[in-house]
Amino acid sequence: MSRFQASIGLEVHAELQTQSKMFCACPVVDSNSAKPNSAVCEVCTGMPGTLPVINQRAVEFAVRVALALDCTIAATSLFARKNYFYPDLPKGYQISQYEFPLAQAGRLVIPLDASQKTVRIRRVHLEEDTGKLVHQAGASLIDYNRSGVPLLEIVTEPDLESVEEVREYASALRRLLRYLEVNSGDMEKGVIRFEANISVRPPQRSTLGTRTEVKNLNSFRSMLRAITYEIDRQSSLLTSGQAVPQQTLGWDERNGVTLPQRGKEEAHDYRYFPEPDLPPLVLDPAWIDQVRQSLPELPPARLDRFQQTYGLSLSQARLLTEERASADYFETACSAAPGVPPSEVANWISGELFSLLNEDSLSIEACPLPAPTLATVLVLHQLGRINLPTAKQLLAEVFRHGGDPAQLVEQRGLAQLSDPRAIDRLVLEVEQAHPEQISQYLEGKKGIEHWLFGQVMRAASGKADPHLVQQRLRHRLAELEKNRPPL
User: Of 369, 388, 411, which one is at a domain's C-terminal end?
Assistant: First the structure.
């Protein structure tokens, strides 16, 4: 058992998938691929005399998240100026929310190995993103395409106590944002960024230790590595009798260490004051109720329903509800294949379909195979018109080339051979073609039955009913044993 207990709070900055920026009409573009400074105007570059205007869609997205996190929505919230000077901040301040945020006092329940844990959400507020610095050839260039993009900051209480809990929380929050369709969750594009507040203390002490804040962690991997390193570093300091200084730290990905950026940071360092160019943000309770009614079924509820309604195992339900698109796909396929057990539909999606998607590096959203077409393949197999190997081949065919599965079965003669007399003829052909193997079987090498089964299936071009082939083959082998002359 560790000598020290970690307490971790996360600040998550999520870009909102709006068409325009937070306070101007500039389009939101991919800052990794768009031409630098191609989506900028006087407002988002901080020109004198310009006035910001609040993006209503961004407010709606923020309210969706706050409601899903069971927060209390403020009837009136205020924007403030957060003053600091940095090259990627053209105005010399960032418009954010401070004393009067959009929402507070929420929660997110995360799954653990044998239980659940409630992580308290301290606040959810809106702000604008900064520009992007590009360092090259000894110089720093600035791309302001990202400047002014709507950001949602979600801050937890220091309730997380291990790297595993951090991973579960971050995964659950990302999944929620994607379900709500307010953020793509694409970590490679930096649309979700993390800052971690970390402290350690002896387990018997209730008061928190001195915290450090690690800034701008752009991936799950970096976040988890940085937190692990910082827990170990602080524990080592306390073990050797040294104090942990309160600092803001950066993460050196290459060397795997945290590095001091500045000393302890307080609110007064930013000289917050109300944004004079923006009025208070007043939300109509009736409008908030409309947003509430528009929320989709959230991941925890869908996970429970998939187990209760469809009889799926926990692992099946978790896999299918990880993405809203895969959960929708599953339910559409089940509706189109009412005679197929839902667990079988789940197995085909998580097995064959996901394998095909992985081979072609496709997401479920980009799946070229409509769910009703998958359902048709499963129904053909369920009715016995095609066997399992043919069903898998047919699924791959329509996945890559399209077409009507039922028509392809007729056109290509893929229908399952289920005539006992025809299968008996194939068994007899194999028996006559392989007398040596038949003799070995009769001499006690029973494992040869599997080889003989394969030969019959090959003679049927893989289209025979495998259960019937096995039944008729065993029947014939039993006859041969019964009629075998005594030694």
Answer: 411
Asked if 165 and 265 sit in the same domain, the reply is yes
Phi, psi of 405 (to 5 degrees): -55, -40
Is position 370 within any domain?
yes
pLDDT tens, residue by residue, 335-383: 999 889 999 999 999 999 999 999 999 999 999 999 999 999 999 888 8
Name the residue among 151, 139, 135, 145 with its Cα closest to residue 45. Answer: 145
Considering the domain architecture, whether residues 391 and 307 belong to the same structural domain is answered as: yes
For the segment 135-168, what is each residue's pLDDT rounded down to a tens digit? 888 888 999 999 999 999 999 999 999 999 999 9
What is the residue range of 459's domain? 420-482
Strands (E), 237-357: 247-252, 257-263, 273-274, 281-282
Q: Give every CB contact of residue 103 below 8 A, 6+ residues apart in sequence.
A: 62, 63, 66, 69, 71, 72, 73, 74, 123, 124, 125
Strand partners, 82: 94
Considering the domain boundaries, does residue 462 fall inside one?
yes
For 408-430, the pLDDT digits (tens) are 887 777 665 566 676 777 777 77
User: Which tokens sit at 413?
Assistant: 């003669």
| Nearest residue to 258 via CA among 218, 221, 228 | 228
Same domain, 244 and 317: no
Q: How many domains does the chain have?
A: 3
Residue 151, in any domain of the structure:
yes
pTM confidence score: 0.81
If phi over 0 gives left and psi between -120 and 50 gives alpha, with beta otherwise, what is residue 18?
beta
Residue ending a domain, among 386, 411, 436, is: 411
478 pLDDT more than 60: yes
Judge whether 487 lies within some domain: no
What pairing do the DSSP bridges indicate for beta strands 247-252 and 139-143?
unpaired
